[in-house]
Amino acid sequence: MLQNIFRLEKALVFNVIAGLGIELTPEEREKIQFIPTQNLQAFLAYSRGLEKEDAGDFKTAAGFYQQAIKRDPNFGAAITKAEVAQGLSATGGSKESAVAVAQTIDPPIPPTSASNLVTDRLQNLGVNTGSNFVPGQDTRKPTEEANKAYGDLPKPPAPPPRQ
């Protein structure tokens, strides 16, 4: 049953795309042909979760996504949606409240002027520049293949005269 629904849905999508004159890459075609689950009950629970999420009821949506995962533990979209819905439910359901909760956990960095940002960045670069340098003799030698392919490199140009 579910297989037929997905087959019909995919055929409809490809007909619309063809009717619009859109050419798909093989990767795009593969993404469209992907079927997220073979379990009808998991798919229905996931669909109910989407409806509840659209209505702003993230707690109930998370419950439906969990039902979908219980019926199909490999249903990746349901797993992702469950995590997001649980997070939004815990923060009160709005992006603004999610930001407020995140700021209490990890307070925002105080604003600085552009000149301070540049100065700080330059200081960090200065401190970290030599951190990965290990002095020693360079033992790298050009390979014969590189010499054959590129030959001897020309000498670099002389520096400009000082004025």
**How many DSSP E strands?**
0
Share of residues in helices: 55-70%
**What gyration radius follows from the Cα positions, in whole Å?**
29 Å
What oligomeric state do these chains adopt? single chain
Describe this structure in words.
This protein has eight helices and no strands. Helices cover 63% and strands 0% of the residues. Among the domains are: 1-35; 39-107. With 163 residues, the protein is mainly alpha-helical.
What's the helix and strand layout?
Layout: H1 2-19, H2 26-33, H3 40-54, H4 58-71, H5 76-90, H6 95-105, H7 114-128, H8 144-150
Helix pairs in contact: 3-4, 4-5
Quickly list its features.
163 residues; mainly alpha; 8 helices
Question: In a nutshell, what does this entry contain?
Answer:
Helix content is 63%, strand content 0%. With 163 residues, it is mostly helical.
